[in-house]
Automatic annotation (TrEMBL):
Reactions catalysed according to its record: D-lyxose = D-xylulose
Record-given protein name: D-lyxose ketol-isomerase
EC class of the enzyme, as a word: isomerase
EC numbers: 5.3.1.15
Gene Ontology MF annotations: isomerase activity
Keyword entries, A-Z: Carbohydrate metabolism, Isomerase, Manganese, Metal-binding
Co-factor(s): Mn(2+)
Length: 223
């Protein structure tokens, strides 16, 4: 992705946060110079994958296959004394898909906080064994109500939340307007706990065509 596209995507996410009255921690607004001035804290955040994240999954078509995220808090899986949970915010465009992927470690709730409708779809293909050894579920809950996972698109509207079972391949996109989404889960590891149905990448190569607005979390520790 071009840096200009990443900058634009983050600015749009910041505008959505403002529209919904959400305020992020101070480091969300850091410039690259702020990361240098706070090098130890920046490295601590980066190690835990906390901060901004913009990806086109290496496909070069961000508008139709991409995602903007901000990880607010996270721990290191299996490390004593670390937080065993994570919190993320996701900014999903209309017809902008996050492609089929599954997690072995992470059980997650995806909650629509505002904006449009989030469409979530599951497939029988490409299941991965949960780290707990439990069978992969074939049903799920939306705010406690049980639904079969397969054979339909689950439409999650503002205020609703869907629990994504471990090991189950899922994809999602916005339907009628940009969607402001929250994710609460066990520890998140975007380097090692994303198993895509198709052979695609989690992170984007960046083409530097303008100054950086916000560093991504995987850049912050190297500032």
């Amino acid at each position: 992705m071009r840096r200009s596209a990443i900058n634009s995507a983050i600015r749009q996410a910041e505008a959505m946060l403002s529209d919904h009255g959400w305020v992020l921690p101070d480091f969300a607004n850091w410039t690259p110079q702020d990361h240098i001035a706070n090098r130890a804290r920046s490295a601590w955040l980066s190690e835990r994958q906390i901060g901004w994240d913009v990806t086109d999954f290496g496909l070069g078509r961000f508008e139709t296959c991409g995602l903007v995220l901000f990880c607010v808090r996270n721990g290191l899986y299996g490390v004593a004394g670390e937080r065993p949970y994570a919190e993320k915010l996701l900014f999903v465009g209309v017809d902008q898909e996050t492609p089929f992927h599954a997690h072995r470690m992470k059980l997650e709730d995806i909650i629509v906080r505002g904006g449009g409708t989030l469409c979530v779809e599951f497939t029988h293909e490409g299941m991965v064994e949960p780290i707990t050894g439990e069978p992969v579920a074939d049903e799920l809950r939306i705010d406690g109500e049980v639904f079969p996972a397969f054979g339909q698109v689950h439409r999650i509207r503002a205020g609703q939340g869907i629990t994504i079972p471990r090991g189950l391949q899922h994809r999602f996109w916005g339907e009628d307007a940009p969607v402001f989404v929250a994710e609460v889960s066990q520890c998140n590891d975007d380097r090692g706990d994303n198993f895509f149905l198709e052979p695609i990448g989690r992170f984007s190569e960046i083409e530097e065509d303008e100054p950086t607005h916000r560093l991504l979390w995987n850049e912050g520790g190297n500032a």
